[in-house]
Write a structure and sequence with these properties.
Doublecortin_dom, repeat, 16% helix, alpha+beta
């Protein structure tokens, strides 16, 4: 390609995209490259995968006023947008993870509840110390990523006093695990048996987050958890 052709190529743009109605999603950076995305629909398909949207993204909105973006060329470098399907734009404080919209919905321990449908978000600071977990009404699990023998398990703090919304827990796992295969659809024990509800989770146990693919039986614990017995109780990764 000639230097003139390179000069005429539109520059790539970096944008941050949020999930419509999700007050806890921190946003994902997506590169808008018009040489890669020939149509706006192709870009929306990439956004669907990038933010692990439960349904296909078909609309983008500005986060403050909900103005619809109709064309690829309308996207501005460094700006923020909200991705939605065919549902209406839901006004939240996306730029601050929507938490200002949740007045009166946070309990005294570690669960935040939103009327938008995302009912579970662990608050790590209140349950960080395992020695005080019982006093706080919290317990911990550790979660591996299916088929991943390079990444250590991440901590999953849960509340004993608040009923666990299983679909919302899977949404939280999707965000934290960031599986290559997409959304987390099930949680398995290390022997591959599937967990069907929050009441089956055991304090201090290890689990594997799995997407649409089959569970991959690998030596997660043996390879990714330190050999020191004190560390094997719980393995925290900031």
């Amino acid at each position: 390609m000639s230097s003139r052709g390179l000069a005429l190529a539109p520059p790539a743009k970096n944008v941050v995209v949020y999930r419509n109605g999700d007050p806890f999603f921190p946003g994902r950076k997506v590169v808008v490259n018009q040489r890669r995305f020939l149509t706006f629909e192709a870009f929306l398909n990439e956004v669907t995968k990038s933010i692990h949207a439960p349904l296909a993204v078909r609309n983008l909105y500005t986060p403050r006023h909900g103005h619809r973006v109709a064309e690829l060329g309308d996207l501005q470098d460094g700006c923020h947008y909200v991705a939605a399907g065919f549902e209406k734009f839901k006004k939240l404080n996306y730029l601050n993870h929507g938490r200002k919209e949740l007045r009166g919905t946070r309990n005294s321990e570690d669960l935040q509840v939103s009327t938008s449908g995302w009912l579970f978000s662990p608050i790590f600071h209140s349950c960080r110390n395992t020695g005080s977990s019982h006093a706080l009404g919290c317990f911990y699990c550790s979660v591996f990523r299916n088929g991943d023998l390079l990444s250590p398990p991440f901590p999953l703090p849960l509340s004993k006093s608040t009923p666990l919304q299983w679909d919302a827990l899977l949404a939280t796992l999707t965000e934290k695990a960031n599986l290559r295969s997409g959304a987390v659809n099930k949680l398995c024990r290390l022997d591959g048996t599937q967990v069907s509800g929050g009441e089956e989770l055991v304090n201090g146990d290890y689990y594997v987050a799995v997407g649409n693919e089959e569970y991959k039986k690998l030596p997660y614990f043996e390879l990714l958890v330190p050999q020191d017995s004190a560390c094997r109780t719980l393995w925290y990764v900031d």
